[in-house]
Amino acid sequence: MHPPFVVSIHYYSQCNWLLRAAWMAQELLKTFGADLASVNLVPGTGGIYQITVNDALLWERKRDGGFPDAAQMKKRLQDHCFPDRDLGHSDRHAPPPARLTAPTRRRPAPLPRAPLNEDERCICCRQRRSREYIASLPTTPLNGSVRRTCCR
């Protein structure tokens, strides 16, 4: 017979992490409910989010890089408290489902373009424009030369 396991979830109350902590408590109780003595929610300060079992640290937000998802936490609790217990479908690694994708259309290769000179770029945004578009723009005097602009 194993000792009674007491899970404590310490959460930062000022950032409304109560819902996250309550959800994690629910997930742990749903999976290990009969085998756990209790699951405690403990409000704290300073950005804390820790999950302990009988004072053994299983998860710390800062150390482990964020918040755990339910499967990660269940696996850690299983490894720590119930190493011989099977978690069912959570323990089995099924191959990822096949992705259904539409057939891809190959784009035709772009037509070769003549190199653009300075007159084929807008002077204010430096965007490349077609020669026809540039020719249709009004001209703007700039430093003694005439430039075409599309943004002013």
From TrEMBL:
Q: Where in the sequence does UniProt note compositional bias of the Basic and acidic residues kind?
A: 83-94
Report the InterPro entries cross-referenced here: Selenoprotein_Rdx-typ (IPR011893), Thioredoxin-like_sf (IPR036249)
Sorted UniProt keywords? Redox-active center
The family database entries (Gene3D superfamilies) matched by this protein are listed as: Glutaredoxin (3.40.30.10)
Annotated stretches, region: Disordered: 83-114
Q: Which domain of life is it from?
A: Bacteria
The protein's name = Selenoprotein W-related protein
